[in-house]
């Protein structure tokens, strides 16, 4: 069955700035762009049919109805005419306001947090994702238990008039929800432990983690598919990706990385979701390199960037780590040709920024070069010789280093290796006395294309 929906974006007049400010929002945004985003969120749920969408300006939010009585009555008539089944309020609606609005309008009311939770419930596929969404739902629903039905109160204990009222139905429901929250949290603790073990295991491999982050629908999954040739769901839809995906990628230089596609961020991301998805989002904090994918064609691109940075800050990512991210200015194919060249030129002059199109592939080669350069800063290039009997040491090196050159003769193996300094240290400790380091040890940053130590063949 189709559910008829009307979307409302309420804005509060700011006396100091004379502009509209969404209630409970952290920063000013264009109200019409915010309304368009809210409509996109509603369209992301199957079975919803948008009947209308409006920006509603209010002078002061009413504690009981959010809107004034006159505006609430006007909207009631409009919703009745449209035969609306559900009203989405793009903002925070208190439990009391939600109950009163549903009574007043005679239809279901869902606020921004509730809508995002419904989308996440629809999209979760893995066991971990389902648990995280269920936890967020319970935390949200627990606050929605409003005492509105007096017949649900029941008394336990006491005789006659002695003993007073016992546990109410709402209190019982809250206790049941709290018990279920504790059970899910214990299950998620095991998820956190498992992810921690996986991260520790990955640290023992030579593959650095490169994480894609960005505002929802910024093109992360499309970029992920182009770089990995994977078939991750990539649609022009908010929150098309929910469960994190990882793929190994070999760069043209021979360096291998693990690329991670994560859930998109959004303004006013519900606190419950940030807390519930912390185990997943912590993958971003552990990444060796973060790629911030931005939709440069979006009219609210600047505000979206601020929202992403805010969420990363809430997750605990240090400010210097945020500054070190590579910024991918995506969707340049949607920018008018007259403006595109100027944007690409301006981006090329900025360190750590690349203008790309995940659809057409423009700028992808420059992106790969930049990833290679960033990951290579802390690497070293070493010459090394091994006896023919050191098969285990050779296998260890080939599994954890990039072999730039390898020769073999009657005396043993001769190699030119590029790798992280920590891995060289682990090798020296594990296979002490087995290898003989030949030539000069140089940092990757000091080598150039003409240096045979890092690129060309060499004679033992």
Structure overview:
By secondary structure, this protein is an alpha/beta fold. The chain folds into four domains: 3-117, Rossmann fold; 124-149 and 168-204; 206-376, Rossmann fold, CATH 3.40.50.300; 379-446, Alpha-Beta Plaits. 41% of the residues lie in helices and 21% in strands. It has 15 helices and 15 strands. The chain has helices at 31-43, 69-82, 95-105, 112-123, 127-142, 169-203, 220-228, 271-276, 278-285, 301-315, 319-323, 337-348, 364-376, 391-400, 421-430; strands at 3-13, 20-21, 48-58, 86-89, 108-111, 209-214, 245-250, 256-261, 289-295, 326-330, 353-355, 379-386, 402-409, 412-420, 436-443. The strands form three sheets. Strands 7-8-6-9-10-11 form a six-stranded mixed β-sheet, sandwiched between helices. Strands 1, 2, 3, 4 and 5 form a five-stranded mixed β-sheet that branches. Strand 10, helix 12 and strand 11 form a beta-alpha-beta unit. Helix 4 (112-123) runs antiparallel to helix 5 and helix 5 packs antiparallel against helix 6. The N and C termini lie far apart (75 Å).
